[in-house]
Amino acid sequence: MNKEKMKDQIMEELEEVNDPELNIDIVNLGLVYDVSISDEGQVDVTMTLTAMGCPLAGTINDMVVQAVKKVDDVKDVNVDIVWNPPWDKSRMSRYAKIALGITD
C-alpha cells in the first residue's frame, strides 16, 4: 500500500464532494485540513465546515465517508470535524474564490 498515492486518490475523490450550500467541492473550499492513513487502511479525515452548527454536517460527513471508501485499500473511514483553526475564505483555492465571485 503506497500511502502517498492513496492520499492523492483520496483527495481526488474528496474533490467530488460538494458543499451543498455553496456547490463548490470541500477541497477547493479549504475545508479538508488533513488526511492520515494507518498501515491497516484506517483513514482519518480532519476537516471543518464553513459555519458552526451547519445543519448539513451529517450529510457532508456521509458524503466524505462514501467518497473515501471508493479508494482501494481503504478499510475504514473516520471524519473528525474540528472548529480550530476556524475556517475563513483565505483557505479557499483561487478556483473557489472565482466561482463564488470573491476578490482578495
Automatic annotation (TrEMBL):
<protein>
    <submittedName>
        <fullName>Metal-sulfur cluster assembly factor</fullName>
    </submittedName>
</protein>
<dbReference type="Pfam" id="PF01883">
    <property type="entry name" value="FeS_assembly_P"/>
</dbReference>
<dbReference type="InterPro" id="IPR034904">
    <property type="entry name" value="FSCA_dom_sf"/>
</dbReference>
<dbReference type="InterPro" id="IPR052339">
    <property type="entry name" value="Fe-S_Maturation_MIP18"/>
</dbReference>
<dbReference type="InterPro" id="IPR002744">
    <property type="entry name" value="MIP18-like"/>
</dbReference>
<feature type="domain" description="MIP18 family-like">
    <location>
        <begin position="7"/>
        <end position="80"/>
    </location>
</feature>
